[in-house]
Structure formats: C-alpha cells, structure tokens
Specification:
Number of strands: 20
Strand order of the largest sheet: 13-17-16-15-14
Low-confidence stretches: 1-40
Helix content: under 10%
Shape: globular
Oligomer: single chain
Number of helices: 1
Length: 278
C-alpha cells in the first residue's frame, strides 16, 4: 500500500475520468482537478461534493452546502453535440416528505438503485449532518444518514422520498458523519462514517450492508450492516478513514468488489499526509 498525500480532487478525478470513459463522445470539460459537467451550480456556500453516473445520458451531482441544507441535481444530457437537456432538483420541497433541517449536508454522496418493478429509481443521498438519538433519547448531532428520492422512470418526476432505515444493530454516534461516501453494487450498499470513534477517536469507519426492498412500503432499508476492516492501515486518532471511496471492480477475481477508501488525516512520514487503503 502506497501512502499518498490525500486530495479530494484525486478521487473526483478518478470518478470523473471513469465517467468520461463510459460516456465516450460526451466531451466533458476538463479542468485542473478532473472533469466537470457545464451546469450552473450555486455560488453561495454550495459546492459539487458528489457525482454519480446513472447511465448514458444521466448523471447526478450533489451540492451539500446548498442553502445550508444541500441538494442533488439529476442532469440529463445529449452527447453529440454535448448539451444538457434537463435538470431536476432533488432537495427540500421536491416531495411532501422532503423537508430538511439546516446543516443537513444532503448530497455529501450519491448513488442509485432501480426497484424490482423497474418503474421507480431510488436516488440515495448521503446526509452527514443528520441528527440522531441514542437509546436514552440524547441528541447526536452530525450522526449522519441516507435519504432516498423516488423518481418515476416514465417521466423522471419525484413521486416520494424517505429516510433509509438502518439495521437495528447499528448504533449512531455524535459526529460520525455517516454517508460521507457511498457506493451501490447490485443490492450491496457501501458507505462510510469518517468521524466515527471506532478503534480510535475520529478514526472513521466504513460499512457494508444489503439493500432490502419492502414491496408494501415501496422503500429500501439497509440490513445486516457490517464494518469493513482496513486491509493495511492501523487506525489513528483523527484519521478520517472513509473520507472518500471508489469502487475499483473485482481486482483479484474473488467475486467481490474491491474498494479504495481514503483517510484524510492519516499520519505517515508527514502529519496529516493522508493515505488510501485498498
């Protein structure tokens, strides 16, 4: 494992570069940190914090600082010539249940899954600022969580939204920032909690769970949540394991996806130089 100076731009570059490979003639615009879609984002305390490729012609961009709450943009485009044809805002007010608190950081990460009917697409958004409560009712600020927007495949209209229920065995913590990074592979959900006190204070954690669809409610839940052990790193205080995550495919042909998970505060030769664990 090579220890690298961590820049979030590195992961954005990997994701955007992979996007460019898939899109072929889409001609995404290069810049100094990677590639970007020519879409107007907010300029006041808003930033593109996540990008998820749905399929050819459809991409989701997250802005977790938008109006102090966050949002996602579902972008539809043509490839030749490259032109954005439609932008759907997934945020507060997009549905009756889409009402959010300030500092939610909705859009810290993004992923999506089609339900078994093939009629509705569930867009999952990491919300690292979500408030939670412990068993005694104590508030846990910035525990984090995942919100899902339900889109009709027929007309891409938002028809509902809900908070994804987590496995009962999962115990939220204050400033865990669950949902910092997220990947869906089949029905498997990978997500990180970069501030969780696992092994070390603010050491961070990553989880694997199964997305289970309830045909009665029309919602997914994350079941059988299990921590992902770092393969080479020993967690340190304020390491921030899970600051970002990229799926590399099945590198060793063992039938399971291999992940690159970054640690923004890892102390190597230099303090806070960062590291990537595969």
């Amino acid at each position: 494992m090579k220890k690298l100076y961590f820049l979030r731009a590195l992961f954005l570059f990997v994701v955007f570069a992979a996007q460019n490979h898939v899109l072929g003639q889409a001609q995404l615009v290069p810049n100094e940190t990677g590639l970007e879609l020519p879409v107007q984002l907010s300029t006041k305390k808003g930033q593109a914090t996540a990008m998820f490729h749905v399929n050819y012609g459809n991409t989701i961009v997250g802005e977790n600082g938008y109006q102090k709450k966050g949002r996602l943009l579902y972008i539809t485009y043509n490839a030749e010539p490259f032109m954005v044809t439609n932008t759907i805002e997934l945020g507060e007010g997009a549905c009756d249940d889409c009402v959010f608190a300030k500092k939610l950081s909705l859009g810290s990460s993004a992923a999506g899954i089609m339900d078994p009917s093939g009629q509705y697409y569930h867009v999952l958004a990491g919300a690292t600022g979500k408030l939670a409560f412990d068993a005694n009712g104590k508030k846990l600020k910035f525990a984090g969580g995942v919100f899902a927007f339900i889109l009709s495949q027929q007309d891409l209209e938002v028809v509902g939204g809900y908070w994804v229920a987590l496995d009962p065995s999962y115990q939220p913590e204050k400033k865990s920032y669950l949902g910092k990074a997220m990947i869906i592979d089949g029905n498997t959900l990978f997500m990180t909690a970069s501030g969780e006190d696992w092994q070390e204070r603010d050491g961070g954690a990553a989880y694997q769970s199964q997305l289970v669809f309830d045909s009665q409610t029309g919602r997914y839940s994350a079941q059988n949540m299990q921590r992902i052990e770092p393969s080479t790193l020993t967690l340190q205080k304020k390491q921030g394991f899970g600051a970002d995550m990229v799926c590399l495919g099945d590198l060793d042909n063992d039938g399971f996806p291999d992940l690159a998970i970054s640690s923004s505060g890892f102390d190597g030769v230099n303090k806070d130089e960062g590291a990537v664990d595969i």
